[in-house]
Amino acid sequence: MTTTASPTADATRIELRAAANRVRSRHARLLVAPALFFSIALTQIPFLVTIYFSTLRWNQLRPAEIEFIGLDNYAVVFTGPDFLPSLWATVLITGTSVIMSLVLGMLFAVLLDRRFLGRGLARTLMITPFLVMPAAAALIWKWSMLDVNVGMVNVALDAVGLPAIAWNTDLPIATIIILLTWQYTPFMMLILLAGLQSQNREVIEAASVDGAGPWRTFRYMTLPHLRQYMEIGVLLGSIMMLQAFDPIAIMTKGTGGTKTLAYLLYERAFIGLDVGEAAAFGVVTVVVTIVVATIALRSLFSVFVKGGER
């Protein structure tokens, strides 16, 4: 003989289960709250202070003279002769470096995803550039690699009969892009390699058995699978490269069209000693970072992945 639970008992069990879920959810929020509050305090409070400073006329040559001027500093930023060239340099250097790092990172990730003797050592050596401090990397490339007299690149050019190139003065934008690409390609490679290793091997083997060649398999199966990893790589890479300062300060000092918003902020803050105007440039740089990252996510992947979603 079977018994049927009464509607009242069912409703009670549902209410108890909902109450238990609410308690677990409340406990989870409480556990996360300290880290959340710390992150807000660490990131948003300094940004709010920066916005406040951007409304002041405050030059460290006259530190006692502080005056509230509203949005006048932003008017100086947007109407000054340096803003548009710096914005263009920022977008050009960051965009080109991100694309080249992504493409090369994809190539190396595909190569290192295969089994071969010494793969572990090769992976370790490939991530080394990303572990080098930016200032040290800039010094190495400026003197050991690209110096017009003793740089390894010019020595190689001379060996094949080509003239030496004064990279820092003749091709300053290319110099910064080369350095950033060299440094951030391992970063992209690690993210994409993680994506490749999470791909279902049985599906790839089935496609191979059905006659799909390597290119078709990569285009229609691997590339769509890597989309989220590519998005993460481009987003984080754009944010980090937009803040690049050491290569520009050490290699070109902002000359030859390499004066980005980050370097322009440095000039206003530590050379011009204008706290208010430097803060305004800082706020604008944050906005540009968000805009560039958003555009990158919406445009780059429509090119890379569109064919794979058909």
Task: Describe this entry's structure for a reader.
By secondary structure, the protein is an all-alpha fold. It folds into two domains: 7-53; 80-309, Orthogonal Bundle (MetI-like fold), CATH 1.10.3720.10. It contains 15 helices and two strands. The protein has helices spanning 7-53, 72-79, 83-112, 119-126, 128-131, 134-145, 152-159, 167-170, 172-197, 201-209, 214-225, 227-242, 246-252, 261-271, 275-304; strands at residues 56-58, 66-68. It has a two-stranded antiparallel sheet with strand order 1-2. α3 (83-112) crosses α9 (172-197), α3 (83-112) packs across α12 (227-242) and α9 runs antiparallel to α12. The longest helix is centred in the N-terminal third of the chain and has 47 residues, at 7-53. The radius of gyration is 26 Å and the shape is flat.
Secondary structure layout:
Blueprint: H1 7-53, E1 56-58, E2 66-68, H2 72-79, H3 83-112, H4 119-126, H5 128-131, H6 134-145, H7 152-159, H8 167-170, H9 172-197, H10 201-209, H11 214-225, H12 227-242, H13 246-252, H14 261-271, H15 275-304
Antiparallel strand pairs: 1-2
Helix pairs in contact: 1-15, 2-15, 3-9, 3-12, 3-15, 6-13, 9-12, 9-13, 12-15, 14-15
